Amino acid sequence: MSELLIDNISMRFDLPNGGHVQALKNVTLDIKSGELMSVLGPSGCGKTTLLNIVAGFLAPTEGTITLDGDRVVGPSPERGMVFQQGALFEWMSVRENVSFGPDMKGMSRKESAGTVDHLLEVVGLKDFKEKAVYELSGGMQQRVALARCLANEPDVILMDEPLGALDALTREKMQSLVLDLWKETGKTIILITHSVEEALLLGERLLVMAPRPGRVHKEYRLPFADLGVGNDLREVKKHPDYNNTREEILEMIWNMEEEIMGRTEENA
Amino acid sequence: MGITILLLYVGAFLGAFFAVKYITQIFFSRVDYTSLKTVTFGDESAVKANRVASVLSVITILLLWVAFTNSTLPLPKAPAPFEGTVEFTYTAKAPDGATDDANVTIIVYREDISQTLDENGEPGQIPTTPEIEPGDGFAKNDATVVPRYGYKVISVRGNDDVSRRDGSEIVAINGQPIQPGEAIRLPEGDVGLTDKGTPFFEPATGQRMQRLYLPAPEVATERLGDLFVEGYRNFTLIEHTWISLQRVILGFFFGTLLGVPLGYAMGLTNWARGWFDPIVEFMRPVPPLALIPLMIIWFGIGEQSKVILLFLAALWIMAIAARSGVSGVAITKVHAAYSLGASKWQILRKVIIPNSLPEIFTGARVAMGVCWGTVVAAELVAAERGLGMMIMVASKFQLTDIVIVGIILIGVIGFAIDVGIRQLEKFLVPWKGRI
Hints:
The structure holds two protein chains of two kinds. Chain A is α/β, with parallel strands linked by helices. In chain A, 41% of the residues lie in helices and 24% in strands. In chain A, strands 6-7-8-3-9-10 form a six-stranded mixed β-sheet, with helices on both faces. In chain A, strands 2-1-4-5 form a four-stranded antiparallel β-sheet, with helices on one face. In chain A, helix 4 crosses helix 5. Chain B has eleven helices and nine strands. Chain B folds into three domains: 2-67, no CATH class; 84-203, no CATH class; 219-428, MetI-like fold, CATH 1.10.3720.
């Protein structure tokens, strides 16, 4: 199946003031088909940059990315994206948003109708098909974004803090939905998040990145994602390892933030 | 008079406010959410146009219009100018010391008599000087006519037996002693002596404006009807209006046709932005009115020069609107569309164009407003048809009613255009302001 290889990626660019930024340094990852990997890290650790490179929106200065042996040089429907918010097309109905990918391929509305209806049912928006997206709540809009991405049948789904703008309750429901969709579709998912809990619950693989230069700091293999499929996530949180891992990661990130702060103060 | 009107206006504003507030409290007390807010001063969302105030505002203006013009409508009026017949007596003193009295009869007629029609549909005539008995004594009676708001020096001694040349002096008016340069006030007007000792009469003007400055509402309305039916300068009002509108529509259409793609190009490529930036940024602050002379030199005074002028007025506004519409596209939307397999062309059609519509509509409203203002100004300078030309030519013939009708019409049409575009926007861009 599809294997995503991130091979020794570095990214460094010049600033107008003559300095430069090493956004990423020697990042190597091998992501197997069907893996759900969450990425955590303090701000400025390059996690969004990494995602944008995998999506093909940015070019690395060194290293290559290959998906199934094909080198990534730009955006493509094989790598779908789900953004935090504001990425839906307000001038289209829910249905038109979801069928955007098939439409771009030149599929007729009839051909894509089955997929679209099915996906809307999966994300629980069957009755909102003809609604305008700006009439929906934030959580519903993210459901549309998920459905829109899935409608294109990508090999890899890249999620850039997809639940970051939602309130806590909606967020929990959406986390379950993401897990269910992952299990049901078997897609490879890379999920960037600021929330340690979310990273723990959703990532069967969890990557902690460190800043300056952006690099992989530590990697975990976690059982919680599998436990969470079809289960109440609150039960998963009672797992004995859950709290320990959470504390460990929080401590790690906390130290990184402290270090950044210290460095900034020294500079100032 | 200006102070009177201002005070009345302020009085109407405040009086109506308290009256409406009182009435609303008694009869229409409604408890909606806003009415429960205790902090409204400074809370913009609690401020909503009071439509009763809007209606009363228009009514107030109409009432003031009626009150301070020579309107025949049965509504409260400011004091009228004097009209009718007035007499006064002067006392002449001969060089030998003898005095004699004589009467002066003055007919004060409407200053706009020639613009009115009598019952036969004929234009009114200035009244003829009445025949009067000369009377006895060496000072003889006189008669004359003077228009309202007028002023007339009356050589009363011209027909006297002892004339001014013979050394006659006027020493009293209506029995009151008077010196040259003085005047006495009668209810009908001021009678006085010029510095050289000749009587003059100035009818009382009251508090109303004469037709030349502001015609009564019914005069303007009547003129509106005439303009519809008979027209002015060979064209009916509809034709004048349509030609002005046509110029605006053509200019705006071509300006949009070129300006929007230009703006898109500037929003989408570095080269186009760099290339056109100096031109657009230079032309944007140049008022279109400043281009009128050049347009006339280049393209003459015909339709072409006007349409090109309006085209230029709309072009930069639309280009800038389209450019900022493109810049306003959230990058996540573009990224999402590319990840869903859209090509550049599809991105333009499905993402960039719809996303820039709100900005383009804002630009269109501004551009239409500017075009409408510019067309009127351009027609003021040179045109054979059009609303601007109509009011310009009418003003030269002192037809203030046509000028007023024209101005009102220009305002109404400008407003209608704006409302029209806003409605179209509501229909085409329902998501505006909701994301």
